Amino acid sequence: MFRFPMRRPVQALAVSLLALSLGSASLSAAEPDDVVAKVGDAEITEADIAFAARDIGKELQRFPPTQWRQLLLDAVVDMELLAQAARAEGIDQDPDFKKQLEFLELQALRNAYLAQKVAGSVSEDEVKAAYEKEFADFEGPEEIRARHILVKEKAEAEALIKDLDGGADFAELAREKSTGPSGPNGGDLGYFAKGQMVPAFQDAAFALEPGAYTKEPVETQFGWHVIKLEDKRRQEKPALEQVEAGLRQKLIRERYDAKMAELKETVSVEILDEELAKPAEEGEAAAEGEKTE
Questions:
Q1: Could you tell me which of 141, 207, 149, 151 has the C-alpha nearest to residue 174?
Q2: How many CB atoms lie within 10 A of CB 207?
Protein backbone atom coordinates (compact mmCIF):
# COMPACT_ATOMS: atom_id res chain seq x y z
CA MET A 1 0.00 0.00 0.00
CA PHE A 2 1.26 3.48 -0.85
CA ARG A 3 2.31 5.63 2.12
CA PHE A 4 2.93 9.37 2.13
CA PRO A 5 5.39 11.10 4.43
CA MET A 6 3.39 13.42 6.69
CA ARG A 7 4.26 17.07 5.92
CA ARG A 8 2.36 20.36 6.03
CA PRO A 9 2.65 22.27 2.73
CA VAL A 10 0.77 25.52 3.20
CA GLN A 11 -0.18 26.34 -0.37
CA ALA A 12 -1.32 22.94 -1.64
CA LEU A 13 -4.73 22.71 0.06
CA ALA A 14 -6.77 24.86 -2.31
CA VAL A 15 -5.29 23.19 -5.40
CA SER A 16 -5.73 19.72 -3.93
CA LEU A 17 -9.33 20.20 -2.87
CA LEU A 18 -10.24 21.83 -6.17
CA ALA A 19 -8.72 18.96 -8.12
CA LEU A 20 -10.43 16.47 -5.84
CA SER A 21 -13.81 18.06 -6.48
CA LEU A 22 -13.11 17.94 -10.20
CA GLY A 23 -11.91 14.35 -10.00
CA SER A 24 -14.91 13.04 -8.09
CA ALA A 25 -18.49 13.93 -8.85
CA SER A 26 -19.58 12.62 -5.47
CA LEU A 27 -17.14 14.78 -3.52
CA SER A 28 -18.56 18.06 -4.76
CA ALA A 29 -21.92 17.13 -3.19
CA ALA A 30 -20.43 15.43 -0.12
CA GLU A 31 -20.80 16.68 3.43
CA PRO A 32 -17.85 16.77 5.87
CA ASP A 33 -19.47 14.15 8.13
CA ASP A 34 -20.18 11.68 5.32
CA VAL A 35 -18.48 8.36 6.11
CA VAL A 36 -16.33 6.97 3.30
CA ALA A 37 -14.69 4.02 5.08
CA LYS A 38 -14.40 2.17 8.39
CA VAL A 39 -11.27 0.82 10.08
CA GLY A 40 -12.52 -1.46 12.83
CA ASP A 41 -15.05 0.67 14.66
CA ALA A 42 -13.45 3.95 13.56
CA GLU A 43 -15.11 5.96 10.79
CA ILE A 44 -13.22 7.88 8.10
CA THR A 45 -15.14 10.91 6.85
CA GLU A 46 -14.92 13.38 4.02
CA ALA A 47 -13.46 15.86 6.52
CA ASP A 48 -10.62 13.42 7.24
CA ILE A 49 -9.85 13.23 3.53
CA ALA A 50 -9.85 17.03 3.29
CA PHE A 51 -7.46 17.36 6.22
CA ALA A 52 -5.22 14.73 4.67
CA ALA A 53 -5.18 16.76 1.46
CA ARG A 54 -3.92 19.75 3.43
CA ASP A 55 -1.12 17.66 4.93
CA ILE A 56 0.06 15.81 1.84
CA GLY A 57 -1.18 17.93 -1.04
CA LYS A 58 2.32 18.57 -2.35
CA GLU A 59 3.08 14.86 -2.67
CA LEU A 60 -0.14 14.34 -4.61
CA GLN A 61 1.11 16.57 -7.43
CA ARG A 62 3.28 13.66 -8.60
CA PHE A 63 0.23 11.58 -9.45
CA PRO A 64 -2.73 11.94 -11.84
CA PRO A 65 -5.66 13.78 -10.22
CA THR A 66 -7.88 10.78 -10.83
CA GLN A 67 -5.79 8.86 -8.27
CA TRP A 68 -5.71 11.53 -5.56
CA ARG A 69 -8.88 10.55 -3.74
CA GLN A 70 -7.85 6.93 -3.46
CA LEU A 71 -4.33 7.85 -2.35
CA LEU A 72 -5.71 10.14 0.34
CA LEU A 73 -8.02 7.42 1.60
CA ASP A 74 -5.10 4.96 1.69
CA ALA A 75 -3.07 7.44 3.70
CA VAL A 76 -5.86 8.02 6.22
CA VAL A 77 -6.47 4.27 6.56
CA ASP A 78 -2.76 3.79 7.26
CA MET A 79 -2.85 6.53 9.89
CA GLU A 80 -5.91 5.02 11.56
CA LEU A 81 -4.39 1.53 11.66
CA LEU A 82 -1.16 2.83 13.17
CA ALA A 83 -3.04 5.05 15.62
CA GLN A 84 -5.10 2.08 16.81
CA ALA A 85 -1.92 0.05 17.22
CA ALA A 86 -0.37 2.91 19.22
CA ARG A 87 -3.36 3.06 21.57
CA ALA A 88 -3.24 -0.71 22.04
CA GLU A 89 0.40 -0.36 23.11
CA GLY A 90 -0.46 2.48 25.49
CA ILE A 91 1.54 5.06 23.56
CA ASP A 92 -1.31 7.55 23.85
CA GLN A 93 -0.71 7.56 27.63
CA ASP A 94 3.01 8.22 27.34
CA PRO A 95 3.93 11.57 29.01
CA ASP A 96 6.08 12.67 26.08
CA PHE A 97 3.25 11.92 23.67
CA LYS A 98 0.81 13.91 25.79
CA LYS A 99 3.17 16.89 25.74
CA GLN A 100 3.46 16.61 21.96
CA LEU A 101 -0.33 16.44 21.71
CA GLU A 102 -0.64 19.56 23.84
CA PHE A 103 1.80 21.36 21.57
CA LEU A 104 -0.05 20.26 18.44
CA GLU A 105 -3.30 21.53 19.95
CA LEU A 106 -1.58 24.82 20.79
CA GLN A 107 -0.33 25.08 17.22
CA ALA A 108 -3.71 24.19 15.72
CA LEU A 109 -5.52 26.76 17.88
CA ARG A 110 -2.97 29.41 16.90
CA ASN A 111 -3.47 28.62 13.22
CA ALA A 112 -7.26 28.62 13.53
CA TYR A 113 -7.25 31.96 15.34
CA LEU A 114 -4.97 33.54 12.76
CA ALA A 115 -7.07 32.19 9.90
CA GLN A 116 -10.42 33.24 11.38
CA LYS A 117 -9.70 36.36 13.41
CA VAL A 118 -6.63 37.89 11.75
CA ALA A 119 -6.33 36.89 8.09
CA GLY A 120 -10.06 36.26 7.86
CA SER A 121 -10.86 39.72 9.19
CA VAL A 122 -9.26 41.51 6.23
CA SER A 123 -12.08 42.29 3.83
CA GLU A 124 -12.04 42.95 0.09
CA ASP A 125 -13.13 46.52 0.76
CA GLU A 126 -10.14 47.05 3.06
CA VAL A 127 -7.78 45.74 0.40
CA LYS A 128 -9.32 48.09 -2.18
CA ALA A 129 -9.06 51.01 0.24
CA ALA A 130 -5.39 50.20 0.86
CA TYR A 131 -4.83 50.10 -2.90
CA GLU A 132 -6.46 53.49 -3.43
CA LYS A 133 -4.43 55.01 -0.60
CA GLU A 134 -1.07 53.57 -1.64
CA PHE A 135 -1.43 54.45 -5.32
CA ALA A 136 -3.42 57.68 -5.00
CA ASP A 137 -0.45 59.85 -6.04
CA PHE A 138 1.40 57.19 -7.96
CA GLU A 139 3.87 58.49 -10.50
CA GLY A 140 5.71 55.69 -12.19
CA PRO A 141 9.14 55.91 -13.74
CA GLU A 142 9.51 57.38 -17.20
CA GLU A 143 9.25 54.87 -20.01
CA ILE A 144 10.08 55.29 -23.65
CA ARG A 145 9.20 53.39 -26.77
CA ALA A 146 12.01 53.15 -29.28
CA ARG A 147 13.04 51.48 -32.49
CA HIS A 148 16.56 50.64 -33.55
CA ILE A 149 18.54 49.32 -36.46
CA LEU A 150 21.49 47.14 -35.53
CA VAL A 151 24.41 46.60 -37.93
CA LYS A 152 27.96 45.29 -37.57
CA GLU A 153 29.95 48.23 -38.92
CA LYS A 154 29.90 51.93 -38.09
CA ALA A 155 30.00 52.83 -41.77
CA GLU A 156 26.77 50.86 -42.33
CA ALA A 157 25.07 52.79 -39.52
CA GLU A 158 26.31 56.12 -40.94
CA ALA A 159 24.87 55.18 -44.33
CA LEU A 160 21.52 54.39 -42.74
CA ILE A 161 21.46 57.80 -41.03
CA LYS A 162 22.01 59.44 -44.43
CA ASP A 163 19.09 57.43 -45.82
CA LEU A 164 16.91 58.62 -42.94
CA ASP A 165 18.03 62.22 -43.51
CA GLY A 166 16.87 61.75 -47.08
CA GLY A 167 13.39 60.73 -45.96
CA ALA A 168 13.64 56.92 -45.73
CA ASP A 169 11.15 55.15 -43.46
CA PHE A 170 12.83 53.96 -40.26
CA ALA A 171 10.71 50.84 -39.82
CA GLU A 172 11.28 49.77 -43.43
CA LEU A 173 15.05 50.22 -43.10
CA ALA A 174 14.99 48.16 -39.91
CA ARG A 175 13.19 45.32 -41.67
CA GLU A 176 15.68 45.40 -44.53
CA LYS A 177 18.97 46.07 -42.75
CA SER A 178 18.81 45.32 -39.02
CA THR A 179 20.57 42.20 -37.78
CA GLY A 180 18.80 42.34 -34.40
CA PRO A 181 15.82 40.15 -33.44
CA SER A 182 13.48 43.17 -33.56
CA GLY A 183 14.31 43.79 -37.22
CA PRO A 184 11.32 41.92 -38.69
CA ASN A 185 9.12 44.03 -36.42
CA GLY A 186 10.50 47.27 -37.80
CA GLY A 187 13.06 47.51 -35.00
CA ASP A 188 10.30 48.11 -32.43
CA LEU A 189 11.54 47.49 -28.87
CA GLY A 190 8.30 48.44 -27.15
CA TYR A 191 8.31 50.46 -23.93
CA PHE A 192 11.19 50.22 -21.49
CA ALA A 193 12.45 52.12 -18.45
CA LYS A 194 15.94 53.07 -17.37
CA GLY A 195 18.00 50.11 -16.32
CA GLN A 196 16.57 47.74 -18.91
CA MET A 197 19.02 48.49 -21.72
CA VAL A 198 22.80 48.67 -21.83
CA PRO A 199 24.05 52.12 -20.70
CA ALA A 200 25.23 53.50 -24.06
CA PHE A 201 21.96 52.55 -25.76
CA GLN A 202 19.86 53.82 -22.86
CA ASP A 203 21.63 57.18 -22.65
CA ALA A 204 21.23 57.83 -26.35
CA ALA A 205 17.58 56.76 -26.44
CA PHE A 206 16.47 58.77 -23.41
CA ALA A 207 18.23 61.87 -24.74
CA LEU A 208 16.00 61.93 -27.85
CA GLU A 209 12.66 63.64 -28.31
CA PRO A 210 9.72 61.73 -29.80
CA GLY A 211 10.11 61.40 -33.56
CA ALA A 212 13.87 62.06 -33.52
CA TYR A 213 16.64 59.58 -34.30
CA THR A 214 20.32 59.49 -33.41
CA LYS A 215 22.48 61.53 -35.77
CA GLU A 216 25.55 59.53 -34.83
CA PRO A 217 25.81 55.73 -34.59
CA VAL A 218 25.67 54.31 -31.05
CA GLU A 219 28.12 51.53 -30.23
CA THR A 220 27.38 48.69 -27.79
CA GLN A 221 28.76 45.19 -27.39
CA PHE A 222 26.14 44.05 -29.90
CA GLY A 223 27.26 46.30 -32.73
CA TRP A 224 26.27 49.72 -34.05
CA HIS A 225 22.79 51.14 -33.52
CA VAL A 226 20.65 53.81 -35.07
CA ILE A 227 17.88 54.63 -32.59
CA LYS A 228 14.55 56.38 -33.07
CA LEU A 229 12.36 57.53 -30.18
CA GLU A 230 8.66 56.90 -30.76
CA ASP A 231 7.05 57.96 -27.48
CA LYS A 232 7.57 58.97 -23.85
CA ARG A 233 5.21 58.26 -20.98
CA ARG A 234 4.99 57.62 -17.25
CA GLN A 235 4.51 54.03 -16.20
CA GLU A 236 0.89 53.46 -15.23
CA LYS A 237 0.00 52.33 -11.72
CA PRO A 238 -0.39 48.56 -11.42
CA ALA A 239 -3.85 47.06 -11.54
CA LEU A 240 -5.38 45.98 -8.24
CA GLU A 241 -5.10 42.33 -9.30
CA GLN A 242 -1.33 42.69 -9.65
CA VAL A 243 -0.74 43.95 -6.11
CA GLU A 244 -3.75 42.56 -4.26
CA ALA A 245 -1.89 39.63 -2.67
CA GLY A 246 0.92 41.87 -1.38
CA LEU A 247 -1.52 44.45 0.01
CA ARG A 248 -3.53 41.74 1.74
CA GLN A 249 -0.39 40.31 3.35
CA LYS A 250 0.60 43.78 4.53
CA LEU A 251 -2.81 44.30 6.12
CA ILE A 252 -2.67 40.86 7.73
CA ARG A 253 0.76 41.63 9.16
CA GLU A 254 -0.47 44.96 10.54
CA ARG A 255 -3.51 43.26 12.06
CA TYR A 256 -1.31 40.53 13.51
CA ASP A 257 1.08 43.04 15.10
CA ALA A 258 -1.84 45.00 16.56
CA LYS A 259 -3.47 41.85 17.96
CA MET A 260 -0.20 40.65 19.52
CA ALA A 261 0.37 44.06 21.12
CA GLU A 262 -3.18 43.98 22.50
CA LEU A 263 -2.77 40.47 23.90
CA LYS A 264 0.56 41.30 25.53
CA GLU A 265 -1.08 44.30 27.20
CA THR A 266 -3.87 42.18 28.67
CA VAL A 267 -2.06 38.92 29.47
CA SER A 268 1.10 38.88 31.58
CA VAL A 269 4.09 37.09 30.08
CA GLU A 270 6.82 36.13 32.54
CA ILE A 271 10.09 34.60 31.32
CA LEU A 272 11.50 32.52 34.17
CA ASP A 273 14.74 31.46 32.49
CA GLU A 274 17.25 34.27 33.13
CA GLU A 275 19.17 33.74 29.88
CA LEU A 276 15.99 33.73 27.83
CA ALA A 277 14.67 36.75 29.71
CA LYS A 278 17.56 39.00 28.65
CA PRO A 279 16.65 39.27 24.93
CA ALA A 280 13.01 39.87 25.87
CA GLU A 281 13.97 42.69 28.25
CA GLU A 282 16.25 44.25 25.63
CA GLY A 283 13.43 44.12 23.08
CA GLU A 284 11.02 45.79 25.49
CA ALA A 285 13.56 48.52 26.25
CA ALA A 286 14.10 49.17 22.55
CA ALA A 287 10.34 49.38 21.98
CA GLU A 288 9.97 51.86 24.82
CA GLY A 289 12.78 53.94 23.37
CA GLU A 290 11.02 54.11 20.00
CA LYS A 291 7.83 55.31 21.67
CA THR A 292 9.61 58.22 23.37
CA GLU A 293 11.45 59.41 20.24
A1: 149
A2: 11
